[in-house]
Amino acid sequence: MPAAGKLITLEGLDGSGKTTLAAGLLTVFPALTLLREPGGVGLAERVRALVTDPALDVDPRAEALLYAAARAQLVAERVRPLLAGGHDVLLDRFADSSLAYQGAGRGLGVEAIRAINAFATGGLVPDKTLLLRVDPVTGRSRQSARGAPDRLEREGDAFFASVGAAYDALAAAEPGRFVVLDAAADPEAVLAEASEAVAASLAP
């Protein structure tokens, strides 16, 4: 029976460069399986369409539960089977996103959201989390260059400041799991630092 694979997650504010870093890590570690949240499987992709639709008015509690539902399906359908089969997974966002965005940004409480997501994932915790730290203003300027913002990206500065502060607090509370990367640095330097952390995590 193969050894269990490792779960590496990418976190950060919108516009922090997660997509660029994920692509770079796949060139360094081609055996990684890249998945995204919300999404990655049929049901979760449908939920993604709901939670990102700017035309919908979604209650914060409903939003938190929708993200958790999408996460539960992705974990059950793809993540756990991959890990059990010895495959290493790179996941663009995971439960820490909900702790920061819904727990802090929406004011629902980090611990309440933690409990919901522990249930949704069966207690699955990443082996390593790469947090791309970016100033909210910089993140938003990068966002706007990408095109029309989705429902969450339309939130104000105070919302993203709360999310960013929550990410910092999460990283400070679990320094063994989190690696904080300066998203304002040169992308090659960010990739090099991230690759070092991933290599250490994947080492037998």
UniProtKB/TrEMBL annotation:
EC supergroup of this enzyme: transferase
GO CC terms: cytosol
Enzyme Commission (EC) number: 2.7.4.9
Pfam families for this protein: Thymidylate_kin (PF02223)
GO molecular function: ATP binding; dTMP kinase activity
Keyword Ligase: no
UniProt superkingdom: Bacteria
Keywords: ATP-binding, Kinase, Nucleotide biosynthesis, Nucleotide-binding, Transferase
Gene Ontology BP, a term: dUDP biosynthetic process
Binding-site residues, ATP: G12, L13, D14, G15, S16, G17, K18, T19
Reactions catalysed: dTMP + ATP = dTDP + ADP
HAMAP family: Thymidylate_kinase
Family: Belongs to the thymidylate kinase family.
Protein name stated in the entry: Thymidylate kinase
Organism: uncultured Solirubrobacteraceae bacterium
